[in-house]
Amino acid sequence: MISNFSYYNPVKIIFGKDTIALLSKNIPSGSKILLTYGGGSIFKNGVYEQVKAALAEYEIVEFGGIEPNPTFETLMKAVELGRKENVDFILSVGGGSVLDGTKFISAAIPFEGGNEWDNIVLRKTKYDKATPFGAVLTLPATGSEMNSGAVISKASTKEKYGMGSPLLFPKFSVLDPETTFSLPKNQIANGLADAFTHVMEQYLTYPVNAMIQDEFAEGVIRTLITVAPKVMKDSTDYDAMSNFMWAATVALNGLLSTGVPTDWATHQIGHELTALHGVDHARSLAVVLPYLMKYKKEDKKGKMIQYAQKVWNETGTDEELIAKAIQRTIEFYESIGIPTKASVYGVGEETIQEIKKRFTERGVIYGERKDITPDAVEAILRMSIA
Question: pTM of this prediction?
Answer without folding.
Answer: 0.96
